[in-house]
Design a protein that fits this description.
584 residues, alpha+beta, six-stranded antiparallel β-sheet, six-stranded mixed β-sheet, 15 helices, globular, binds adenosine-5'-diphosphate, binds magnesium ion, P-loop_NTPase, ATPase, ABC_N, ABC_ATPase_put
């Protein structure tokens, strides 16, 4: 490759394409390490070229116990990608996606299930002077920086073995804990000593300093779980049903709920949330006025609208706060959610509550909305869907909650008994609904997702906020459990996979199409999405993929029948993407 490069000095930039192919990694001698230029770069301002480095098993040298299960491989790959990004450090032409606080299955690094060999994939901004090839800089990059990363980041011998083992064991324990939840009848577990608050609103690392109060479980909810590596851990087990988190403003309610939101993912050692986990089918809901809704049955929450539209088959290009939240709830259950999280801070009040006085002032005939408080019990009883609510401003939920947690100066206590007493004094309101109706399944029309321009669908992410999918701009600002911006790219690739493989075919329901997607991701992991395109991405959950699809403005659907329970008996893939212990 060195010679080839030397010959390209000063040549037109486009001739970099001639290097596309697989080369022996410079300086690797007989070790079998390779460098692959996967895709060239059209010009110096185009998106960077894609490259891959492969380190064969003998050279990588990882002991089998570090890669013997899908979970361990994901953890090992996560560690290596982080390390590689660290080693690349100041080299701005190398774009290595190391990931953040969550340990996700990523496009950037894979460990072979067969022998523990390692592949690292990254972006490579090919050096140019104007529109000419800068071969000297390219040589430094490809023949020096890249080999250095391979030897310093992708080989067992050059890594901190203790840190690596801790990383893998931490992830394995998180997965084991999450897998244990259904058997224990829990929706979430937060270990004593967990650190939940973050550095700041824009810093996902743990808060530090004197003021940080580590989590301590209330007596009545303390449970002990045996983990493969950490042994017995004690913490708060939150049971299935309706749970309420109350307490004064600024006492840590939202912070606890956010820990449950992100508890679907595994976290790196030192994060503070390693043992704060929730069920993989946990979905955070919020109001999102302005969003589009396509043919969702929202009549559980919204009756006779002033414009006379049919709320059992409701579409709008501009939902209100309450209708958007109602639609998001029904869509989540349609996609297979088993636990719903709602925070008063971001919820539509009129969808959550309607107290006695308002009931007497505004007759039911005039109020299209039925508040969640009247169907939340049925959601659990009839559909097996639990709810965790943060609600400091209204006591209406005390009556319907199975348990009530109070946050007081960041410390939770179990106030269920007292809440029962308070609730035994009638509030004077009457129930407005008897049950939560069966969820209507919808069949997405593939032509509404396909790209008009033939060839590859454009997939671009803008931070965690937006996805460009073909001609569609999908607003994801209110989809709060997206782990990082690369996962937005992963969502785009997952949508493309569902269309290309014909999972969305105009006859399958959305839930069925998502089941097929999950099966692919279960089998092939990140490779399934890499087959769509070599790109930096993190594997998404079905719920975020569904959320994006539901927000495509051109989406068209037909309606299948309704079924109870909502999911077609499908098993939502574990969020940890490890492939173990899916729970239905
Ligand atoms: P609430 O929802 O009850 O109003 P928040 O969860 O928003 O309260 O928390 C208020 C503030 O307290 C935030 O700045 C948060 O980072 C901080 N905080 C939350 N939990 C803790 C804790 N355990 N230790 C220290 N600070 C915390
Ligand atoms: Mg709050």
């Amino acid at each position: 490759m060195q010679e080839q490069l030397a010959r390209l000095e000063g040549a037109p930039y486009g001739r970099y394409k001639g290097l596309v192919g697989t080369w022996e990694l410079p300086g690797a001698g007989t070790t079998g390490e390779t460098f692959q230029l996967v895709r060239g770069q059209a010009d110096p301002f185009a998106p960077p070229a894609r490259a891959a480095v492969r380190v064969p098993a003998e050279r990588a040298g990882f002991p089998p116990e570090l890669w013997s299960t899908p979970v361990r491989r994901r953890a090992l790959a996560g560690f290596l990608a982080r390390r590689a990004a660290e080693v690349a450090g100041g080299e701005r032409s190398l774009r290595i996606d190391g990931g953040g606080q969550e340990v996700l299955e990523r496009g950037s690094c894979q460990v072979s299930a067969d022998d523990g060999g390692v592949t690292l994939r990254f972006g490579l901004a090919l050096p140019g002077r104007g529109r000419r090839i800068d071969a000297r800089a390219a040589e430094r990059l490809m023949c020096r920086s890249v080999p250095e990363i391979a030897s310093r980041a992708l080989r067992y011998a050059s890594l901190d073995a203790g840190a690596l083992r801790r990383f893998v064991e931490t992830v394995e324990d998180s997965v084991a804990l999450r897998d244990a939840l259904p058997g224990l009848g829990l929706v979430a577990f937060v270990a004593d000593g967990s650190v939940l608050p973050r550095g700041s609103g824009v810093d996902d690392r743990p808060a530090t300093g004197e003021g940080v109060v580590p989590f301590s479980s209330p007596e009545g909810l303390r449970t002990t779980v045996e983990l493969p590596n950490a042994g017995a851990v004690s913490g708060m087990g939150l049971r299935e049903g309706v749970s309420l988190i109350v307490g004064g403003g600024f006492h840590g309610k939202s912070t606890l709920l956010r820990a449950l939101e992100t508890g679907i993912w595994d976290h790196v050692p030192g994060d503070g949330r390693e043992l704060a986990v929730s069920r993989p089918e946990t979905v955070k809901l919020r109001a999102e006025d302005g969003r589009r809704v396509e043919r969702v049955d929202v009549h559980a929450f919204v009756g006779h609208l002033p414009d006379g539209s049919d709320t059992t088959d409701f579409s709008t290009g501009n939902a209100s706060g309450s209708t958007s939240q109602a639609a998001s709830l029904c869509e989540a259950v349609e996609a297979g959610a088993r636990v719903l999280l709602i925070d008063e801070d971001t919820a539509a009040t009129n969808l959550m509550i309607r107290d006695a006085r308002m009931q007497s002032l505004v007759a039911k005939e005039r109020e299209p909305l039925t508040p969640l408080v009247d169907s939340v019990r049925s959601l659990h009883r009839d559909h097996g869907v639990s709810t965790v609510l943060v609600m400091g401003g209204s006591g209406d939920y005390l009556e319907v909650a199975d348990r009530v947690l109070m946050m007081d100066a960041y410390r939770p206590s179990d106030v269920t008994e007292r809440a029962r007493e308070v609730a035994s004094v009638p509030a004077g309101r009457h129930a407005e609904a008897e049950s939560f109706p069966p969820v209507v399944h919808r069949v997405p029309d593939p032509s509404s997702l396909e790209s008009e321009s033939r060839g590859r669908t454009r997939i671009r992410s803008r931070g965690e906020d937006a996805l460009t999918f073909g001609e569609h701009e999908v607003d994801l600002r209110s989809v709060e459990q997206i782990a990082d911006s690369r996962q937005v790219a992963g969502i785009g690739l997952a949508l493309e996979l569902m269309v290309r493989r014909g999972y969305v075919d105009g006859t399958r329901t959305l839930a069925e199409a998502l089941d097929l997607l999950d099966a692919d991701l279960e089998d092939a992991g990140a490779e399934a999405l890499l087959a769509v395109r070599d790109e930096d991405f993190a594997v998404p959950r079905r719920f975020e993929t569904a959320a994006a699809l539901n927000r495509v403005r051109g989406l068209r659907v037909t309606r299948a029948g309704s079924r109870t329970p909502a999911s077609t008996g499908s098993t939502a893939r574990t969020a940890s993407t490890g492939g173990t212990g899916s729970t239905g």
